[in-house]
Amino acid sequence: MLIEIKVPSVGESVTEAVLVQWFKQDGDVVRKGEALYVIETDKITLEVEAEADGVLNIKAVEGENVAIGAVVGTIDTEGMPRKTDLPKEPPAQEEPAALPLTETGEPTGPLETEPVSPLPAAPPGQIPSEPFELPGGRIFSPSVRRLLAEKGIDASQIAATGPGGRITKGDVLLYLEQTAVGIAQKLPTMPAALEAVAPQRVEVVEEKITRKAMSPIRQRIAVRLLEAKQNTAMLTTFNEIDMSRVIDIRAQYKEAFKKKHNVSLGFMSFFIKASVAALKEFPEINAFIEDKEIVYHHYQHIGVAVGSERGLVVPVIRHAEKLSFAQLEKAIIDFVAKINENRLDLADLEGGTFTISNGGVYGSLLSTPILNMPQSAILGMHKIEKRPVVVDDQMVIRPMMYVALSYDHRIVDGREAVTFLKRIKEFAENPERMIVEI
Known about the structure:
438 residues; alpha+beta; Chloramphenicol Acetyltransferase; 3 domains; 21 strands; 25% helix; elongated
């Protein structure tokens, strides 16, 4: 079986790389996990390992520009030599005989051993022509060998963090920063250090990922949001609202309201009522663009963004201009129940002319909502937070809420958008203008 060796992807913007060096020769036996070759781009240097045991067949030469995904070689998994064809291992050397000991336990004479030939160090400024190995068969990549040679660095002094205990280019650069080693400086020669320092074992932590198909609703959300960003001239204006009066009214009439209507009085109904009143004054914000025409709506179908386990959905409260506070609150509760029970119909999501999103329930202080196409605007509510504000030249603490209006600048001018948001602020700060049925 032939396994293709392909150039791996190293980033979306990278289309080709340079095959710097093969660690093996054509026809060599390779093992799974062994480093086969090195590629370099303008951003990184990467070693590529074998995916299986077999015989290597090289198809691209060193120094060649190779495209990402190109086949640079193959591994013949059926061409492995038989055990009888493999070279025999040299016989194990016998351990030197133990010397007689004295009564105190010390040897009676010196223990004779053969001298060990040290591994020669690469001279500064010169790159070894042969693969450069440390004890244990570790191989340096070309970029690491080049940097070691240029700086005259003893490789055994560097902590290795690469796969299989390899020294990476980043390890060398970190060592230079920590020890302030200059080009002209040189550490003790490599042989002495290699005899004293054992190869370090680096624990490789498995980085797990999980792939999960996007649900149909999540795919639809992605398409709609991307469409809004690409096909509209979206702009956002901000303001802040003193929520003191709304909070006082809710506290004052909370029990009576729930007793009469069997539903709690929430913040959303106040903002729906305020939006309906403001939309009547600024019809462009309640209109759509279709081809080269502007379609004005003489009714207010208000979409309320609701978060669920399946994603964000925007059920539409139809003819919100005709509904009372209690009817609005009941409509919201009914939609939430439908969403939780997976009973929401497609008709519940269609026909909205304006949308309100309350990120404050999740703790959002400020955000920029994205348009719900084909609508021309969306109002973003946020969490209520006590802040110092100036009222009648006095510093006071008030419960404040930031609000944001994102709008399509193709149909809504900045003046209308800013004034519309100011009207929302005025209605919310003076809710007596809106009749509360209690």
